[in-house]
Design goal:
With about 450 residues, the chain is α+β, with helices and mostly antiparallel strands. Helix content is about 40%, strand content about 10%. The protein has a four-stranded antiparallel sheet with strand order 7-8-9-10. The chain has a two-stranded antiparallel ribbon with strand order 1-2. A two-stranded antiparallel ribbon has the order 3-6. A hairpin with a 2-residue loop joins strand 8 and strand 9. Helix 6 crosses helix 9, helix 9 packs across helix 10 and helix 10 packs across helix 13. The two termini are about 50 Å apart.
Length: about 450
């Protein structure tokens, strides 16, 4: 049994994120992934030609799956919706998270706009490797977080207690700046089940091709883009490879959003300058906002309390643990035998998109910690529960369609069957099927030449 999770909150209830489709989708589609041109982590940046680089990053969510409950929130959006908002700006809005209550949390919310000098000083005071400069665009997104969307910040501040330790552990192992943990805030608002209409999924919003390239399993039953630990590991490898190329974290963050192809084109149009703010006018419109929002997210998550925002309370505490199994398993089997709500199991195991652990290799099953011992004790009975209908309902072998021939025989699974007719003899049947009488007797267990009409004979050739 491998310890994997220890949390003080219910993991990841359904979040409903509303995003607008933008022209940025076409920009991303220009940068199709070329696996054969992957740049190794060890390759020096000096040896890499931008013109030959075809590496494409994870894709930001172009529009996240919407549930009906979002409809009630839309009028709130319309109060301050800019006519030219990009989908990145839409993701800075407040969206639904049912398991956190922020009513009391923002009762003392401070809506006073601070002087620019305060925002600038606070950003400069953050212990960061990545540059977090201040300008009017950064200020606009800071206000959208802390003034217009305090509930969202309150929720993410609470959820960060679970996710940030996962991110920081992986970032530390790869010697990456810890502030990169704020990228999933922009990408998915810390929702591991977030899916975009463009096909990106998970906390880090991997596209399927990129996910597979970095070792994540994506198929009909398993989508490891939604596994917080494995997706974070893949994201760290990706970010490290991109920094090997650009040697500038703001360019890496920009490439994460729009693809290295678009960043390279912007660098060329800017006369070879390799600074985000120098190539800013030449980047896709969405990406021009992506780095300012990243800076604003750093501010909001660190200084939310200074604006009267506190962490959203949780409905219950939940300690989880993980068990590894190579057995084919359905979450309904676990739910019924261990008395765990199926929706809770799905929240704990979002990578199993059809509730099935395929088996055959090792997969992790996350459970409430107090259920781990029960699972170990009852594993055989759990696996046997409705196994035929839940996990053994795929036929391993099937008879081929029976085809009747002109001589009255048919074949099934490589064997010919002949129905004996009145007047038939073993010798005549053997001649018809080009075999010997001895073979017919062996194939059918006959001790003599007596046969009866209506019976079937096997011809095994």
């Amino acid at each position: 049994m491998k310890k994997k999770f220890f949390i003080l909150l219910a993991l990841c209830a359904v979040m409903c994120i509303h995003a607008k489709e933008t022209d940025a989708v076409s920009d991303k589609q220009e940068n199709n992934l070329r696996i054969d041109n992957m740049i190794p982590d060890s390759l020096s940046a000096d040896t890499i030609s931008l013109e030959s680089l075809e590496l494409v990053p994870l894709q930001a969510a172009d529009s996240i799956t919407v549930e009906d409950s979002i409809v009630a929130i839309i009028p709130f959006y319309k109060q301050w919706n800019d006519s030219d908002m990009t989908d990145i700006e839409w993701r800075a809005l407040d969206w639904s998270l049912r398991w956190l209550d922020t009513t009391d949390c923002i009762a003392t919310h401070d809506t006073t706009t601070l002087p620019d000098s305060v925002y600038k000083a606070r950003l400069q005071a953050l212990p960061c490797v990545i540059e977090l400069p201040y300008n009017e665009r950064v200020r606009a997104f800071i206000l959208r977080y802390v003034k217009r969307n305090p509930k969202q910040v309150a929720r993410m501040m609470r959820m960060s207690e679970y996710y940030f330790p996962i991110f920081e552990e992986a970032l530390g192992r790869y010697n990456l700046p810890y502030e990169l943990k704020y990228v999933p805030i922009i990408e998915s608002a810390l929702n591991p089940s977030a899916r975009s209409h463009a096909g990106a999924a998970g906390l880090w919003q991997f596209m399927p091709s990129t996910a597979k390239l970095f070792g994540l399993e994506v198929n009909s039953l398993v989508d490891e883009r939604m596994d917080p630990i494995k997706a974070t590991e893949a994201a760290c490898r990706f970010l490290k490879s991109m920094y090997t190329i650009y040697r500038d974290w703001n360019l890496v963050i920009a490439a994460y959003n729009c693809g290295s192809g678009n960043v390279n084109k912007a660098i060329r149009r800017a006369g070879g300058k390799r600074d985000f703010w120098s190539i800013y006018p030449y980047l896709p419109r969405e990406t021009r906002n992506y780095v300012p929002i990243f800076i604003a997210a750093n501010y909001a998550m660190n200084y939310g309390q200074e604006h009267g925002i506190c962490k959203a309370p949780i409905e219950k505490t939940l300690i989880t643990d993980t068990i590894l199994t190579s057995r084919r398993l359905h979450l309904h089997q676990v739910s019924k035998n261990l008395d765990i709500e199926i929706d809770e199991l799905r929240r704990l195991n979002p990578q199993y998109t059809r509730d099935i652990l395929p088996g055959g290799t090792t997969y992790a099953l996350c459970l409430p910690a107090d259920k781990i011992g029960l699972y170990i004790d009852q594993e055989d009975s759990i696996l046997a529960y409705k196994a035929d209908s839940l996990i053994n309902n795929r036929r391993a072998e099937i008879d081929m369609a029976k085809v009747t021939s002109v001589n009255g025989s048919y074949r099934s699974n490589g064997i010919t069957y002949y129905t004996i007719k009145n007047g038939d003899t073993l010798g005549g049947i053997a001649k018809k099927f080009h075999c010997s009488v001895k073979q017919l007797k062996q194939w059918n267990g006959l001790k003599n030449d007596n046969i009866r009409a209506g019976k079937k004979l096997k011809i095994c050739k």
